[in-house]
Design the sequence.
């Protein structure tokens, strides 16, 4: 998967003492990469952060291609995807 880790988590990896509770990722918008991203996160039940429970949301390649930036909650924690 082609991506760049940014934000607080990237700062921590570079030695910052700043605490962060989400992962911020800039991802490549190629068809293959979007498919890999969909497959990688699907088992972790991505859902739109702060969306009402039960709001229909399909985590699939079509959704990602039609969108750009996603603030998600997952079983791994919060992830911000920036296209």
Sequence:
């Amino acid at each position: 998967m082609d991506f760049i880790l940014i934000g607080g988590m990237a700062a921590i990896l570079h030695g910052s003492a700043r605490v962060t509770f989400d992962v911020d990722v800039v991802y490549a918008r190629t068809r293959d990469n979007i498919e890999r991203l969909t497959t990688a996160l699907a088992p972790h039940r991505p859902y739109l952060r702060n969306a009402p429970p039960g709001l229909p949301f399909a985590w699939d390649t079509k959704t990602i291609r039609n969108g750009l930036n996603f603030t998600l909650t997952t079983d791994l924690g919060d992830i911000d995807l920036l296209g």
User: Anything to note?
Assistant: The longest strand covers residues 22-27. The chain has a mean pLDDT of 85. The chain is about 30% helix and 30% strand.
